[in-house]
Amino acid sequence: MSVQGSEEEDGVSIFSTLSTRKRKKGREQGKERKRKTTLAEETPLEDQGGERQRRKSSGKRKKGSRGSGDGGKEDQGAGASVPGDGGGGGGALGDGFRATGLNAWVCSVCDSLGMKKATPVQSACIPPILGGRDVVACAETGSGKTACFLLPALQMLAKDRVGVFCLVLVPARELAYQALEQLRGLGGNVMGISGVAIVGGMSVTDQCRELARKPHFVFATPGRLKDILIHDSSCAEAFKRLRMFVIDEADRILDPSFEEDLKVIGGYLPSKRQTLLFSATISKNIEVLQEVVMKDCFKWSQHDTFKTVEKINDQYLFVPEKVKEVYLFHILQKFEEMKVRSAMIFVKSCESCHVLSYLLDELDILAVALHSQQKQKKRMSSLNKFKSGVCPILVATDVASRGLDIPTVDLVINFDLPFLPREYIHRVGRTGRAGRSGRALTFVTQYTIQLLHSIESLTGRKLSNYETKEKEVLKHITRVFAARKAVRLRIEEEEEAKA
């Protein structure tokens, strides 16, 4: 048996991605089910996987059937019986992922999900991750960074099924749930795989109970995980045999605001572990950490400087501060002309997000809001409505600027410029995902010109001017100002009701 074939057999015992052949009707179907049930009861997990693989390899194949390749050869290598391989002729499966060192069953998962070729960050970083090295990677948004650590983690977990195998820290709750969903997609055929999101806004008791079961993957926000580790020793015990520690959106997690949380969490993790840092931008804190803490570190960056996604057409619109809402209403009226299906509008604060969502409601524009002061149920509801296309506009703070994968976002509007220029890169990265084209429009007032210059200096890219006709814009001023007044009254009534 070839090395590849042996490797695949080992994998199938834990990660079974082989599609079941159509069985004969009537008695043969009943007998086959009964025989499989007996095997499952009497045969250990690894023997079951090996038996399935041997039966598939030795069974007669119909001429021209999938996996038979050129003339139905018996020995097609490790990928012979994996659906989507295209037979022995090479095919899409493995063109990008086999070269990274991933096993055949992991490659077949990628193929079934339409991931035909590894992205640059995946091609560069998966091999050293599989080799056990620490990794620091900087790649643009939408480049597949989450799959870059989940795929090798799934493969490595097959060899070492400890309790909590991988801990992933993220800066926002929505990112934890999104990463958990990606795990379920990539590990959908994994036998007994488990994962959990540990975030604020949810029941601490329920989360402690889930951690006590020692799930293989934990996706957490630093603050909530720190609190649980301090107050529940059984949860802290779950991380004693951790193998992989991932910090996603590392430039944000390593900011001073999370410093105390990281110190506490680090004290509960084993010193012998693999550490991976992923980000769309590199900060000084990342550079310091990799020099001081990370040993034998593999460093990879997709670009030398801070850059936005190449296929984004980012423009600016100079507007007077007092009529920003009027210009926004004008832009939203042109969605059909601009061929925009959905858009994200970024604002500077939770209060601004709340007010602007009310304003759009008064103007009969369907929109939902997302900010950190909402209850978690409301946040998830808003995000799901937007992602599903039920609502075409999401008004959000920077809580939605990182990592959220919503492929249909055609336009990002920076209603308020971010205080930190690097946040601009993360915001506009919500469009133009995974090689698609996108568009970003930034409102610049007389008070934020310097911020625009800072962004252009950081990205090395000049924003072009978006042309508008002032008379056409201002014809909506009466309607918008009337809506603004109605919003103020609405908010005052809410405050009085709370008091």
UniProtKB/TrEMBL annotation:
Keyword terms: ATP-binding, Helicase, Hydrolase, Nucleotide-binding
Please give the CDD domains that the UniProt record associates with this protein. SF2_C_DEAD
Q: Where is the composition biased (Acidic residues)?
A: 1-11
Q: Indicate the family of this protein.
A: Belongs to the DEAD box helicase family.
Species assigned in the record: Chloropicon primus
Stretches for region Disordered: 1-87
Q: Which SUPFAM superfamilies does this UniProt record tie to the protein?
A: P-loop containing nucleoside triphosphate hydrolases (SSF52540)
What residue stretches are annotated with the Helicase ATP-binding domain?
126-300
Show where the Helicase C-terminal domain sits. Answer: 330-474
Q: Does the keyword Secreted apply?
A: no
Q: Tell me which InterPro entries the record gives.
A: DEAD/DEAH_box_helicase_dom, DEAD_box_RNA_helicase, Helicase_ATP-bd, Helicase_C-like, P-loop_NTPase, RNA-helicase_DEAD-box_CS
Please state what the protein is called: DEAD-box ATP-dependent RNA helicase
GO MF, one annotated term: RNA helicase activity
Bias kind Basic residues: ranges: 20-37, 53-65
Q: Name one GO cellular component term.
A: cytosol
Q: Which SMART domains match?
A: DEXDc (SM00487), HELICc (SM00490)
